[in-house]
Structure formats: structure tokens, C-alpha cells
Specification:
TIM Barrel; 7-stranded parallel β-sheet; 681 residues; 4 domains; binds ligand H79; Immunoglobulin-like; 8-stranded antiparallel β-sheet; alpha+beta; single chain
């Protein structure tokens, strides 16, 4: 990663704190309220790219990136302007389709990466008003959204492949001069367009930036743009792509850095909730954002409904995409799915709107959402797999159930529930009311009293001879009881935990909180695998240090070294980057033996900027490949005392360069692998 970039980023962490102080926490919560309640929105990718509909020169897998992916020259692409005439566009129909699916907001591309403006702008001729259509669809949609009670929101791409002042150019665009290009002029253009969008279309719910990752964009510009947008509409919500701190397609911004109002996982759902962070997963229904006439790979209705529940159970929003045609209509597969979602939402939307992340840690049958009510709270159990024995059990809740019922059953007849300690069992109807997702409501009075199980902590997750395990709980007035067994088992009585446990065999540790002799949490479990140590090599005559080979070239991934000619080679005492001299772009590998002092479990940690790989005993054990800033990955293995073949590969592509290999074992704190441990033939 470029050092200059890091410096800029660091300096702006400070500025961001200043910016954040302008708004109280309460003010921020108030501004986010409608969005958190909404949980479900529609993304619309609509632009000139709908004209080729994904096909160019016989290749059919393009989408909204077609201009760049198919390397279409600017004047050729411009010809789509005279062919874009979506006469079948009807704003009311689109908004009604979203509303009937249960969506509460619509985010539409006002300008995608191709630079084409889907609204009436005075800033460029490359816009909808120069097409035969000659109407402003954003105006019509804004009005329709107001009419049907949805929030109207805008996507705007910072990257722009059309504007003469935008930089950089695509590397294949040799015919577009850059001599007179001034990026600041481009920024002024964006601001002028955003002013039009923020002053002529009424209240905008969200401004959804994208295309922020090119080197011309940085945190300073991001923060300035954020403040500019909010100066025009103070209550607007802005996604994290306004800044330059997004890490990857997981869509979150580096901790402590300015990241707008919410994170934007793209085409993926985080594995767990992200406490303290607002986020929204955006996702296509098929494999393209913009209309592609050949792409029939649509997700099933079942997948989509379950994803909505999954996301809500983790405290996120779902922004589901539709790519309308150049005639102005939704693909029929999208319309079918929207209707299907609508049928489910009509009966079950209460389990989605205004809910919070699940407080229940284990829900193997589906997902859980939660909502506070006037004098208590409700749990919504989204049951994907209807239990064959007619009994659904949740544990970890100490509140008394005041009522249980099937949400979609309008009369809400009560279901019987029974309790054993912290586990509530619900007697269900024989057959699932909905084969995709049936919602059971559990109603409670009073403050939620959930039972977080103890944490099971250790420096290692496996053992050769032994591993030390500690159990911890931050809950007041609880006693931890545990039980070591062969599998995951609820702790019924267990042994009272007094201090660190030494474990000498493969096992599962089960732990649970107790109060007054009764369980007050679910059971947490962790498996510790026993590793058979790898044999050491019978080698002799080794010399101290590692051999290395150095190569130059521009690679995004670790190259195949076998096919390359080395630039120089030699021996180093310990892992040292480019011992003689180095270029901005290079790769190298180290090889030899590592000597370990005793038969034991060893944990190796490989940290690098950019990529690296670790091979031990001739097997790849850590893959930390690719272009990235300093990032570590670990691996555990049992090793017999003596010499083990080791190989470390490293890749560097401009900016700061770092590589560290650490070793750690139950008897040895984490240390850098040093010259006493390294040998070569
Ligand atoms: O509008 C849709 C897509 O056209 C757009 N975002 C959605 C909402 C999109 N643009 N690019 N991509 C999706 C994929 C780009 C990924 C990368 Fe990167 C950009 C890889 C490297 C630079 C983002 C920044 C991910 C890693 C760093």
C-alpha cells in the first residue's frame, strides 16, 4: 500500500473526529431511524448500458460495465444516446412494484461509471434529455415515491469514464487526451450535479456513492463531499463509499476511519452481526446489475426471502437490485420474484420492519429477529426447517413467555410453550404454514433478560500435549460450570470453574453460566483437536540462514517462480526483503529449514504488505496472497523436534513493503522467527 496514502488516511482520522462532533449521537440516531426501520429497499441500475443489454461483438456476459469491459470507444458508446427511448417506462408501476414487495425505499442510478446522467442536468449533454425519450425519469420516480410513501434515494458514481476532466483514463483508452484534464474541475462538476439532484427532487433519503476506489479519490475529498451533501440536505444518509477507506467487497470501512453513515457489503452477507455499525447488503437477483437479456441465472424466491431474514437477523438492510430494460420495464423474472416476496411480506413483514439483530446465539432451524414493544418485546423466529417432531426450542432467554403464535395466522391462536431452565420449547402445528419461512412470534413482558454463554478462550485452538483454556463471563452474579466431553453437550450440572484448565487430549469444552445453582445461559462449546506432530527431516551439514531468490515484474498474485528468471539470489540470516537492492515491483522467496526445539504445537503467523505464502513440510499452510496493506494470517501444526522444510513467498507492488514471520508455542511467546532457527543446505 502506498505510504503517502496511509499518511493521508491517518491525518484524516483526526479531521473526521471533528466532523463527527458536529452531530450528537442522538441526532445521528434520529437521522438513521427510518432507514433502520425500513430493512428492505430496491436498487435500480438503469442507464445507457440497457441498450446493448449485455451483448457486444457476440459476447453476452456484459452489464453496466460494458463500455470498459468490452473496450467500447467513447464515440461508439455515445451512439446509444440516440437509441435510448424507454417509452414503456411508468414510474408509478415501478414504485408500486417495490411497495407491493414490501420495500420502503428505492435507490436508482442517477449516474453510473459510464458517466451518463439519467436526469435533467445543465452540466452535460450526456444525459437523458438528449435522448429521443426527452423526459426526466428521476423526477417522475421522485413524485411517485412521494405518492406511495417510499423514500426516494440516489446512486451516484464518483468514477466517470466519460467526463474529460475525470482521471485516470482506462489504460486501453489511448485516444482520449489527458493534457488539459483537471481533476478539481471534475469535482466541481460533480458538486454542481449533486446540487441539482439535492435541490430539485424534494427530499432524498440516501445518497449512495460508488466508484470511489481509484487513486484520485481520497479521504479529504470524501469528507468534503460528505459535508457538502449534508449542507444541502442535513437529514440525508450517505453510504461509506463517499470516503476512500473501504477495505474490499465486504464493504466495510477500516476501523476508526471516516466511513459515512453505513457500510455496504456487495453481493455478500456478513457472517455475523456487526454491533455498532449500520450496514446494507446490496445484491443482484441474477448475475448482473444492469439489464442483461441473456442472464437467466435468477436466485429463487426461497433464497431471496431467506436472505432478507438472514440480513435482518444480523441487524442489516437488504438492497435488492432490478435492472430494467431499455424499453423501461422490469424483467419478468424480477417482477415474479417481487410479487412472491410481496406475498410473504404481506403476512410476515412485522418480523422484518423495525427489528433488531437476534439476541439468540444458536438458531439451527432458521433465523431470529427482535423488536421492543410498549411493555415488553417480541422475538420473531423465522423457521426455515420445520421440526419433524413438532417442537422448536430456543435457549438463552430467561423471560416468561406471555404468548406464542404463528404470525401469518390472522387469529393468532396461542401455541403451547414449556420451559426447562433457560430453554423455551414451543409446540408447533404439524405442517409448516410456509414452506420457505414460517414466522413464530414469542411475546414477552418486561425488560429482555438474555443469557450470554461464557467465552471459551485460549491462545491455541488445538494441542499436541496440552492446551490451556480459560472461561470468562462479563455477566454479574454468575458462576461458570463446565464439562469436558467428546462432543457438544449442554452442561446440566458440570464442574464449577475456578481457574485455567489444562487439557491433555482431544475434546470439546462445554461451558454455561449458572445463578443460584440454576443455568442462566445457553451452553457455549469449543473443540480442541489433537495434532499428530509432523516428523522432522534427517538432514545434516546444514548452514545457518535461508536461501533466497529475487525477481522483478508486475504481478497482482504470487507468480509461478518456476517459469521466471531470477535477478539475483543469496543467503540471509533471517527474513529480509530484497537484501541487495529492490525495485518498486518485485517478488522473492526464501527456502531452507526451520529448527524447532521440542515436540510441540506451533502457531505460525505471517504478516505482509503486499502478498505472501508460507509452506511448511512441503505443503502450503498460509495463503496471504494478493495486493493488500499489512495483513496477518495464522496456522497451527504439531512438529517433532528438529528440522522442517520451510518456504516463504513474497510479492510487492509499489508503496510500503513488509514481511514478518512469527512463531509461538505453549512454552514460547509470539516471537519473530530468528536466525537461531533458520538453516539452508
Ligand atoms: O453498481 C454496481 C457495480 O457496477 C459496482 N457496484 C455495484 C453496486 C461495482 N463496481 N465495481 N465493482 C462493482 C467491482 C469492483 C471491485 C474492485 Fe475494488 C474495485 C476491486 C478493486 C477495485 C472495491 C475496492 C473492492 C476492492 C477494492
Amino acid at each position: 500500500m502506498k505510504r503517502s496514502l496511509i499518511l493521508i488516511l491517518l491525518s484524516f482520522c483526526f479531521l473526521v473526529k471533528l466532523a463527527a462532533q458536529k452531530e450528537t449521537l442522538g441526532g445521528h440516531d434520529e437521522r438513521m431511524q427510518w432507514w433502520r426501520d425500513a430493512r428492505f429497499g430496491m436498487f435500480i441500475h438503469w442507464g445507457l448500458y440497457a441498450v446493448p443489454a449485455g451483448t457486444w461483438n457476440g459476447q453476452t456476459d456484459y452489464g453496466e460495465w460494458i463500455r470498459t469491459s468490452a473496450r467500447i470507444p467513447l464515440d461508439t458508446y455515445d451512439q446509444f444516446v440516440s437509441r435510448f427511448n424507454p417509452v414503456n417506462f411508468n414510474a408509478d408501476e415501478w414504485v408500486k412494484a417495490a411497495r407491493d414487495a414490501g420495500m420502503k425505499y428505492i435507490v436508482i442510478t442517477s449516474k453510473h461509471h459510464d458517466g451518463f446522467c439519467m436526469f435533467d442536468t445543465k452540466q452535460t449533454d450526456f444525459c437523458i434529455m438528449k435522448t429521443p425519450f426527452h423526459r426526466d425519469p428521476l423526477k417522475e420516480l421522485a413524485d411517485a415515491c412521494r405518492k406511495y410513501g417510499l423514500k426516494f434515494c440516489l446512486y451516484y458514481s464518483i468514477m466517470d469514464w466519460h467526463h474529460p476532466d475525470y482521471l485516470p483514463r482506462r489504460e486501453w483508452e489511448k485516444d482520449r487526451a489527458i493534457d488539459d484534464a483537471e481533476y478539481d474541475k471534475y469535482v466541481a462538476y460533480m458538486k454542481a450535479e449533486l446540487k441539482e439532484l439535492l435541490t430539485r427532487y424534494g427530499e432524498i433519503g440516501v445518497l449512495w456513492f460508488d466508484g470511489e476506489w481509484e487513486p484520485t479519490w481520497n479521504q479529504a475529498r470524501g469528507l468534503d463531499l460528505y459535508n457538502y451533501v449534508r449542507s444541502l440536505q442535513p437529514s440525508i444518509i450517505i453510504n461509506n463509499r463517499v470516503g476512500a477507506g473501504r477495505l474490499d467487497m465486504e464493504g466495510l470501512t477500516k476501523k476508526g476511519m471516516f466511513g459515512g453513515d453505513f457500510g455496504t457489503p456487495e453481493q455478500q452477507i456478513p457472517a455475523t452481526g456487526l454491533p455498532g455499525t449500520d450496514w446494507e447488503t446490496c445484491m443482484t437477483m441474477n448475475d448482473h446489475w444492469g439489464y442483461n437479456s441473456q442472464d437467466k441465472n435468477f436466485k429463487s424466491l426461497k433464497e431471496i426471502i431467506r436472505m432478507l431474514s438472514d440480513i435482518a437477523s444480523k441487524g442489516g438492510n437488504y438492497l435488492l437490485n432490478v435492472g430494467p430494460t431499455a424499453e423501461g420495464i422490469f424483467p419478468k423474472e424480477s417482477t415474479e420474484r417481487l410479487r412472491g416476496i410481496g406475498r410473504w411480506m404481506e403476512l410476515n413483514s412485522e418480523a422484518v420492519y423495525g427489528t433488531k439483530a437476534s439476541p439468540i446465539s444458536s438458531t439451527p432451524w432458521g433465523r431470529c429477529t427482535m423488536k421492543t414493544t410498549k411493555n415488553g418485546f417480541r422475538l420473531y423466529l423465522h423457521v426455515f426447517d420445520w421440526p419433524a417432531n413438532g417442537k422448536l426450542t430456543i435457549d438463552g432467554c430467561l423471560n416468561k413467555v406471555s404468548k406464542a403464535f404463528v404470525l401469518s395466522d390472522i387469529k393468532h391462536p396461542s401455541l403451547n410453550t414449556t420451559r426447562k431452565n433457560d430453554a423455551i420449547s414451543i409446540a408447533l402445528p404439524k405442517t409448516a404454514p410456509d414452506t420457505v419461512n414460517s414466522v413464530i412470534v414469542l411475546e414477552f413482558k418486561g425488560e429482555p433478560d438474555f443469557t450470554d454463554p461464557p467465552e471459551i478462550l485460549s491462545d491455541f485452538s488445538s494441542l499436541v500435549d496440552s492446551v490451556t483454556v480459560t472461561l470468562a463471563s462479563s455477566r454479574p452474579n454468575v458462576e461458570i460450570r463446565f464439562q469436558v466431553s467428546d462432543s457438544i453437550k449442554p452442561v446440566d450440572s458440570g464442574i464449577i470453574y475456578k481457574g485455567p484448565l489444562n487439557i491433555y487430549r482431544e475434546c470439546t469444552v462445554n461451558a454455561r453460566c449458572f445463578r443460584d445453582g440454576k443455568p442462566v445461559s445457553g451452553t457455549s462449546s469449543r473443540h480442541y483437536a489433537a495434532k499428530i506432530p509432523f516428523f522432522a527431516r534427517a538432514v545434516s551439514g546444514l548452514k545457518p540462514g535461508l536461501s533466497y531468490r529475487y525477481f522483478e515484474g508486475e504481478w497482482d498474485k504470487m507468480p509461478n517462480f518456476k517459469k521466471l528468471q531470477q535477478w539475483y539470489f543469496g543467503v540471509v540470516d533471517t527474513i529480509t526483503l530484497a537484501p541487495k537492492k529492490r525495485n518498486e515491483n518485485f517478488a522473492m522467496y526464501f527456502f531452507g529449514y526451520i529448527k524447532v526445539p521440542k515436540r510441540e504445537l506451533y502457531k505460525f503467523t505471517l504478516a505482509s504488505d503486499d502478498g505472501s505464502k508460507l509452506f511448511l513440510d512441503d505443503m502450503q499452510v498460509i495463503d496471504n496472497d494478493g495486493l493488500h496493506s499489512l495483513q496477518e494470517k495464522s496456522f497451527e501444526r504439531g512438529l517433532n523436534e528438529g528440522y522442517h522444510p520451510i518456504r516463504v513467498e513474497y510479492l510487492q507492488r509499489t508503496g510500503s513493503a513488509e514481511l514478518q514471520l512469527y512463531i509461538e508455542s505453549p512454552g514460547m511467546p509470539k516471537t519473530l522467527v530468528n536466525k537461531q532457527m533458520l538453516f539452508h543446505e
